[in-house]
Amino acid sequence: MKYGIALFPSKQIQDFANSYRKRYDSHYALIPPHITLKNVFEADDIQAQTIIKTLRQIAAETDVIPLKITKFSSFYPVNNVIYLKVEPNETLQELYKKLHSGVLTDQSDYTFVPHITIGRNLSDAEYFDVFGRLKMQTVHFEETADRFHLLYQLEDGAWTVYETFLLGKDRE
């Protein structure tokens, strides 16, 4: 089965992102706005149970994560993806590292750039038009994330939550 690990922002941020995603993101119907913590990976049922135990331990050892979203940005010229920039912070970076070590070790194709995708698979003309308008907008959200999710992919390509992991060294 295909799995992934993501952090979902608040409804307020999801609604803001979706106001753009419904028009510009070809994956709009497949997954809600999210910050990808671990890209797609394959695991069988036995491996999944080991991974879940590891994720529980990681969550218990990780503080809640401050999220600060500050602007629209893009991955151009690598690809025509437009996203909401999530400012990196030590807690988020440390969680990412933990999710790529031990039983979860793999080689990522990209450097971790925390973001929420709002547009993908855009033609060059559409990319330049849309990003040209969006980069002038003021964006500012701040909140705290207290959980991340193990997702799995359904046969239709959509993603759904398999299990949620609450963060918190201080959680009782």
Q: Can you give a write-up of this model?
A:
This protein has helices at 11-24, 45-60, 90-98, 124-134; strands at 2-7, 35-42, 65-74, 82-86, 115-119, 141-145, 147-153, 159-166. 29% of the residues lie in helices and 31% in strands. The protein starts with a strand and ends in a 6-residue tail after the last strand. The relative contact order is 0.25. It has four helices and eight strands; from the N terminus they run E-H-E-H-E-E-H-E-H-E-E-E. The longest helix is centred in the N-terminal third of the chain and has 16 residues, at 45-60. The chain is an alpha+beta fold. The strands form two sheets. It has a four-stranded antiparallel β-sheet. It is globular. It has a single domain, classed as Cyclic phosphodiesterase (Cyclic Phosphodiesterase, Chain: A), CATH 3.90.1140.10. A hairpin with a 5-residue loop joins strand 7 and strand 8.
